[in-house]
Amino acid sequence: MADTRVDLCGIELDNPVIAASGTFGYGYEFAELYDINCLGTFSFKGTTREPRFGNPTPRIAEAPAGLINAVGLQNPGVEAVIAEELPKLKKCFHKPVMANVSGFSIEDYVHTCTLLDKEPQVGWLELNISCPNVHGGGMSFGTDPKAAAAVVRAVKAATKKPLIVKLTPNVTDIVSVALACEEAGADGLSLINTLLSMRIDLRTRRPVLANVTGGLSGPAVFPVALRMVWQVAGAVKIPVVGLGGVSSAEDVLEMLLAGAAAVEVGAANLQDPWACRDIVRDLPGVMEKYGIEKLTDIIGGAHG
Amino acid sequence: MEEFLYTIRENRPLAPGVFRLSLSGGGAAPVPGQFVQLRLPGRFLRRPFSVCDAEEDRLTVIYKAVGRGTEELSRLEPGAELPVLAPLGTGFDLDRAGETPLLVAGGLGLTPLYFLAKTLRRQGREPRVFLGFNTEKEVFYDEAFRALGCEVTVCTVDGSTGRQGLVTEALPPDGSFFCACGPEPMLRTLCRKLPGPGQLSLEARMGCGFGACMGCTVQTASGPRRVCKEGPVFDKEELLWPTQE
């Protein structure tokens, strides 16, 4: 029997499949389609201190083998998330969940993380310092090692739960940001967030997205994500969660071989709402095909 | 919501660039105003289409070939199979529509209103249908509405057939309940001009189509709402559009 269990910052997951933030809401809508307890876990919709409508529409565009989004962190704000969304989530999901947090200042991040840190069902905090779609925050922390370290240090000092920092690929040297986060006390890293991108409408001759640019995700970015996971996992000692275009059990194994301790699945959920369930279902068979008995045996295996 | 595999029975032009796609073999049971997402070969995101008709294992949508995805769709032959996510969204509230509602469409916006008209006629109600087009050669489906037994007024901007002018200028200001679908400027004008309550079906560029990605959100009187989930049909009072010029 294939052993799909993995460890993420001291919490055991039944399998390494984590639905990625912004593609899975707060879980309960997917729970109408299948029992989401089959997942390792999921990272809920990026939460900020105040409610946000997000960017003007259109904020979605098609891309070859993927999509571009410029949603801009629409969410009801941390207080409503705790009062209204988490009780609904709790009814359909019985494992520790990952709380994805974004902000516009260190104080924002600390405030939101402190509140979510107290929620019993939150297993990990995932600090989004990599959203390409909001101005004056998000990615500006993730593109500078010093700014990244400062926000990680501040949140770490105010919270108890494992802190996973989500990194942007829109930098020349992701390893330097990863090392700065590790040094500042991060318990894990997740990468990659979306790649800055755009489309132009030939009929209107204007950008498709009202925000002009957005973040590319989907199978198109998988090889880029894999390369960055390889580089970061080779440089840090803390666990790395690999994401970016993962859409099959085979992709999960590639990510683990590159050094990921677990994976997140994002865009695939938007194309096929049953994608995560199917990846979890397929995993033991694909492990058997490649002669893998225990998933933890192959983490980082490609580094030789 | 489920995923069904449908087979194309017919995919033919009704007007320049406008095609009717008739599918069979699936089991979706939509209500008027709901939509479906078709997975097109080689495209990552599914494409949303209003349901024009649904009967037993059959499903009909009407679409305009405007981009590469829909252009490729227009070249698919009968016999091809399409995975369809359905039914999606929230449709028209038939209980509110009354006996003689106004059904107002601009161009392709007539698609969901045909399914609505058919359902209302089956219940013995008498919808009054107003269809707006730019010019005569763009007119389609007016006869299909008449075949349901509806009173139909066709308007063309250039007056080449039917009543000359915008469809928004042809409506009786009698306070009737209205159901509308069409370009947003038309819908905004309707909300401003028609004294009665109504429901409007909005169009949006969607990602997932089932409420997960937050790509198609609109601001409403009740807060941000997803066109693909709480919509595409919204009450007139919910839309934050000015009621006066």
Please, could you describe this protein's structure?
The complex is a heterodimer of chains A (304) and B (245). Helices cover 33% and strands 19% of the residues of chain A. In chain A, strand 15, helix 8 (249-258) and strand 16 form a beta-alpha-beta unit. With 304 residues, chain A is of the alpha/beta class. Chain A has 10 helices and 16 strands. Chain A has a single domain, classed as TIM Barrel. Chain A has an 8-stranded parallel beta sheet with strand order 4-3-16-15-10-9-8-7. In chain A, strands 5-6-14-11 form a 4-stranded antiparallel beta sheet, with no helix packed on it. A two-stranded antiparallel sheet of chain A has the order 1-2. Chain A starts with 5 loop residues before the first strand and ends in a 15-residue tail after the last helix. Chain B contains 4 helices and 16 strands. Chain B starts with a strand and ends in a 10-residue tail after the last strand. In chain B, the strands form 3 sheets. A 7-stranded antiparallel beta sheet of chain B has the order 4-3-7-1-2-6-5. In chain B, strands 11-10-9-8-12-13-16 form a 7-stranded mixed beta sheet, with helices on both faces. In chain B, strands 14-15 form a two-stranded antiparallel sheet. Chain B has helices at residues 68-74, 110-122, 142-147, 184-193, and strands at 2-15, 18-24, 35-38, 47-50, 53-55, 58-64, 81-88, 102-106, 128-133, 151-156, 163-164, 178-181, 198-201, 217-220, 223-226, 233-235. Chain B has 2 domains: 2-88, Beta Barrel (Elongation Factor Tu (Ef-tu), domain 3), CATH 2.40.30.10; 94-200, Rossmann fold. The A-B interface holds A 22-25, 29-30, 32-33, 45, 53-54, 57-67, 69, 71, 74, 203, 208, 218-219, 267, 269-274 and B 1, 3, 39, 43-46, 66, 69, 85, 204-208, 210-219, 224.
Could you outline the blueprint of secondary structure elements for this entry?
The complex is a heterodimer of chains A (304) and B (245).
Chain A lengths: L5 E3 L2 E3 L3 E3 L8 H4 L9 E2 L17 E4 L2 E4 L8 H15 L4 E5 L4 H12 L4 E7 L10 H4 L2 H14 L4 E4 L7 H10 L4 E4 L3 E3 L2 E2 L4 E2 L6 E4 L4 H12 L6 E4 L5 H10 L3 E4 L1 H5 L3 H15 L15
Chain B lengths: L1 E14 L2 E7 L10 E4 L8 E4 L2 E3 L2 E7 L3 H7 L6 E8 L13 E5 L3 H13 L5 E6 L8 H6 L3 E6 L6 E2 L13 E4 L2 H10 L4 E4 L15 E4 L2 E4 L6 E3 L10
Parallel strand pairs in B: 8-9, 8-12, 9-10, 10-11, 12-13
Antiparallel strand pairs in B: 1-2, 1-7, 2-6, 3-4, 3-7, 5-6, 13-16, 14-15
